[in-house]
Amino acid sequence: MDEKNYCYKYPHPAVTTDCVIFGFDGMRLNVLLIERGIEPYKGRWAFPGGFLNMDETAEEGARRELKEETNLTAEYIEQFHTFSDPDRDPRERIITIAYLALVKLQTVEGGDDAAKAQWFPLDKIPQLAFDHDLILRKATEHLRERIHFQPVGFDLLPEKFTLKQLQMLYEAILGVRFDRRNFAKKMLHSELLTQLDETVWPTPKREANLFSFNKTKYDELKQKGFRLEF
Amino acid sequence: MDEKNYCYKYPHPAVTTDCVIFGFDGMRLNVLLIERGIEPYKGRWAFPGGFLNMDETAEEGARRELKEETNLTAEYIEQFHTFSDPDRDPRERIITIAYLALVKLQTVEGGDDAAKAQWFPLDKIPQLAFDHDLILRKATEHLRERIHFQPVGFDLLPEKFTLKQLQMLYEAILGVRFDRRNFAKKMLHSELLTQLDETVWPTPKREANLFSFNKTKYDELKQKGFRLEF
DNA sequence: TCAAAAGTGTTCTCCCTACACCCATGG
DNA sequence: CCATGGGTGTAGGGAGAACACTTTTGA
């Protein structure tokens, strides 16, 4: 049972995938962490992930682990960096291919493996296992850069959202504040939004228009080559 | 001699690094390729690269291979994607961590291993080994995105260059044409250039001012958060 | 004297920015 | 009636885009 049946002429590192999963709660960016049930780093929080199967691509592996450990479906998934420090895992040399995933946060959480999964706001991250703090830093940087070229923000929002929600998301990702009126003007002018006939009462004060993301228009604009600046 | 001494409980993929090396010849972007001397794909062209040692990070491995196979020193090196298709190498499962390197093209070529190395303009790339055509496509895309945030172009030029050279480089990378006057105005206004007292005769027609990249100013501006748009 | 390359300035337009008022509602 | 949040318009400034003339030199 402890046999080692896979032999090579030269040493091979192990390869895993890890998923940094972002969700937006309406106010802040959150990441989904899983409490490790086994050593090393038992009891610490870590990103969902695991060993890559020999017959799957890294992205397939990342999606599989995401599904197995959190039961979430990602709106968006993208490889962003591979971490290869020889000592990043105490067991053996493990290289991890890290993915960034965006999900609509209201979808349920909780994985098949009964592992404890929990959302943490970005400014209240507990101590993480392995080099996952480094991975998180790289992931947030990457997300920040991404949003300049691609309207990834919409993957973090529900299908229907208010301008205020959209603005708070952009502010959370970029760490800046926008003028309410200018933000609305720019967004509406971009034609990426479809104004719906529906409204909601986000506060007890006054109803607000709902919008949805116009993917058709986005694909059309992307074809022509455009950038949404912030 | 054919023994397999490195054994694991679970199968492990092999891991390599590959370097897509860009150089600029004054007119066009070029990439450095090496002719493979062994099977598989013997005789085809490929990026320099090789197996990762167990005690080095991927970036160290990439730099080592770069040095061994081409004897070049990169001005800039950055990991951009990891390729993991299970069938991308016919020998065994090999995952490759790919790097983008920028060098000043006039530095000599030719590696230690006596392998044939040669610059190819981007529009005259021969048939490549493995999935290296895919890797090249990803690399050029990445370079194009990078240049929006970072003045990486300067790493591709000699220390002293003319505005015309700089413009041709940007045009080559982005695949667009700029108005000569507007390009000069924007570049000079950015304060990233230092005008030197020297001039050259790039053509037999008239002398041109030489410039150098003002790295101090760049770091200063980056601190304050700025973007050079194109 | 002509062709080719380098240097330079102006105008127009558009977008981003700063900023203020009105409306609807619940307490 | 007032506090809160949502919706909308305008004036000013700055940067990019379009565009032309002059100078230098070799042929």
Write the layout of secondary structure elements.
Two copies of one chain form a homodimer.
Chain A: E1 6-8, E2 14-24, E3 29-35, E4 45-46, E5 49-51, H1 58-70, E6 76-83, E7 94-102, E8 117-121, H2 132-149, H3 163-174, H4 180-190, E9 193-200, E10 208-213, H5 215-224
Parallel strand pairs in A: 2-7
Antiparallel strand pairs in A: 2-3, 2-5, 3-4, 3-8, 6-7, 9-10
The structure holds a DNA duplex (27 and 27 nucleotides).
Description:
The structure is a homodimer of 230-residue chains. Chain A folds into 2 domains: 133 residues, Nucleoside Triphosphate Pyrophosphohydrolase; 72 residues, Arc Repressor Mutant, subunit A (Orthogonal Bundle), CATH 1.10.10. In chain A, 28% of the residues lie in helices and 27% in strands. Chain A contains 5 helices and 10 strands, in the order E-E-E-E-E-H-E-E-E-H-H-H-E-E-H. Chain A is of the alpha+beta class and 230 residues long. In chain A, strands 2, 3, 4, 5, 6, 7 and 8 form a 7-stranded mixed β-sheet that branches. The N and C termini of chain A lie far apart (56 Å). The first copy, chain A, is elongated and about 65 Å long. The model of chain A has no long low-confidence stretch (mean pLDDT 92). Chains A and B meet through strand 1, strand 6 and helix 2 of A and strand 1, strand 6 and helix 2 of B. Chain A binds a DNA duplex (27 and 27 nucleotides) through helix 4.
